[in-house]
């Protein structure tokens, strides 16, 4: 019985020491902040904090993981921003009364760029499964990809 209490106290002491280590170690403190910002969807801030934490302690696996996750998420964010910009350009071209061959070729090129960009982002994007990347982010990027594929097919037929 006495031995059981000893191990319980020793285990609790170990947990407290580890908690204090994580709370006061600057690398892990930044890692926890990075994870918080990643969870909120602020991938730039998360990447920046995780990069700082990793620079302080290259053995900090949490920092390495959050840095990689946020880097991948930022690729999706950048793809979505580019897709929105290209969609606005295409909408402006489509608003014209008559669309010439040069405009069709330009639309086709934009679609090809976005289709290739999506494939290069990550293999995760193709099957839509990811444990670490926000599902809504993948779905939004995939939705733009599918729009560009459909538009590319239509434009290719008319050229």
Give a quick precis of the structure:
With 159 residues, this protein is mostly helical. It has seven helices and no strands. It is elongated, with a radius of gyration of 24 Å.
Describe the overall structure.
The protein has one domain. It is elongated. Helices cover 86% and strands 0% of the residues. Helix 4 runs parallel beside helix 7. It is mainly α and 159 residues long. It has seven helices and no strands.
Brief descriptors of the model:
7 helices, 0% strand, single chain
Largest sheet: none
Number of domains: 1
Mean pLDDT across every amino acid position = 90
Which series of helices and strands comes N to C?
HHHHHHH
Q: What best-fitting shape do the alpha-carbon axes yield?
A: elongated
Specify the number of helices.
7
- Helical content band: over 70%
**Rg measurement, Å:** 24 Å
User: What share of residues are in beta strands?
Assistant: under 5%
- Uncertain regions: pLDDT < 50 for 5+ in a row? none
The first-to-last residue Cα distance is 85 Å
Q: Indicate the structural class.
A: mainly alpha
Write the layout of secondary structure elements.
Elements lengths: L1 H23 L1 H15 L2 H14 L4 H34 L6 H21 L1 H5 L7 H24 L1
